[in-house]
Amino acid sequence: MRSGCWPLLMLMAFSGAGWGAQPWVATDASGHLEYRTTDRGDRIVDFSYAGYMGGGVPLRKVPVVETVAPSGSDDTATIQAAIDRAAAHSLKNGIRGAVKLAPGTFLCSGSLTINSSGVVLRGSGSGEGGTTIRLTGEPHVAIVLTGKESIEEKGPAAHIVQDYVPSGTRTIHLDDASSIVVGDTIRIRRVATPEWVHFMGMDSMVRNGKPEVWIGNGLVTYRKVAAKKANELTLQVPLTDSYDRKYLPPEGAEVMKVEVQGDIEQVGVESLHVVAPAREVGLSEKLYRTMRMSGLRDGWVRDLVADDTTEGISLGGDVARVTLDGVVHRHRKTITTAAKPADISMGGTQLLAVNCRSTGDNEFYVVTGPRNAGPNVVLDSVFEGNGHIQPHQRWSTGFLVDNTQVPQGGIDLMNRGGMGSGHGWTVGWGVVWNSKAASFVIQNPPGAANWSIGNVGEELTQPMKRYDIQEQGPNLPMGYVESPGKPVLPKSLYRQQLQERLGAGASKALEQ
Fold first, then answer.
1. Are residues 174 and 87 in the same domain?
2. How far is residue 329's CA from residue 14's CA, in Å, rounded to a whole number?
3. Which of 72, 153, 243, 283 could cross-link with 339 by S-S, CB 3.0 to 4.6 Å?
């Protein structure tokens, strides 16, 4: 950590460490960020790597190569043909061109698919006088952005030799890094040993007399190598989880050099209004959905309004470095089942949702997927209704909710226990910063931490959710709650981290 005095303007903290503990993040006398660490060296992650091109880079402005006007009948094939023609253009600086939809209403009975790099689908605005895609026919996904990611191992396997790798670090030490060079992509694999699952308290969930399996076989994280010194690797992006060799196989976490191919890049969707029929349905029924992404890196969605799509935007586990800017979901009907839909589902890594809005009840506004490693960020957003921002299941890590409001609902970093199909501990190393909600459930997993800092709303305690057991058990440990009811400085953790890493003008990229 940098030396310097903790500023007096930072308010006293209440946490597991008690009153008067140093803030987990603050600025020193020279304006630089200071990070407090746990006894084992864990710190709040640098989330500034989330977003298009790894954060701090303006979204591309792509020239138009195709224009389509509404016909008054089904326009699916016509728009798709224009997308395919744009995809046939040669790449120039990673771009092929944009398909521009003229003002008016387009009827679409099928999905519009972009599966080539450098193609943008752009309307003429999401508001009055702009472009509307009206979904017709059987329920379907409005827009699909998809590549065909493949991962080839370039072995041999190495292993991390440290007894403990703290969350937030960029440095790992291997037993043999001779086959790895700067610029390589590595896969870090943690085996979910029975010892670790037991340590997490996730080996005793039962529903209807049957065990519920929490995590599966293990978790993987992909990182590029930024620097190398002998067997020490410095990673481009910090790790969002910790690795305790006590709960790993004897050889430690596996590190493998890999080659990732098949992703599409520099793809965007802009300035559109999507409308679906308003329906009261169960989540198991066929649904109208806003967008699905897979096999994609370095993409964006901006100025998109969706009315009455039951499910929103799903970013799969093979999606990275994507920004959602100004995405709005509005719902007139609610789901009829206990299982709830999500407006934004973050399954990948380095994902940023900024200036997003939702209006609707009985839903998740933002969720994370199973076993996904961040950093992932929700920033400057407002979600109205009795829904929740809530990492959803099976151990995501490195999730930040920053300067965001859920005034009638909740923000939860929690153990969902037997909910769903045994979701268990949903998140570790997550932060809710200077946000407002009716309630917060911030809980500390075994061997990990979650933070509530500068938030306004009721901080709740509760037990792990159980099924087949009337007695729910004791309340789980609260996360680190700092400055409850009183916002702290900096106003935005993400923006300050971005400025710290890339310079004073970096956050301006969010306004362009």
1. no
2. 36
3. 283
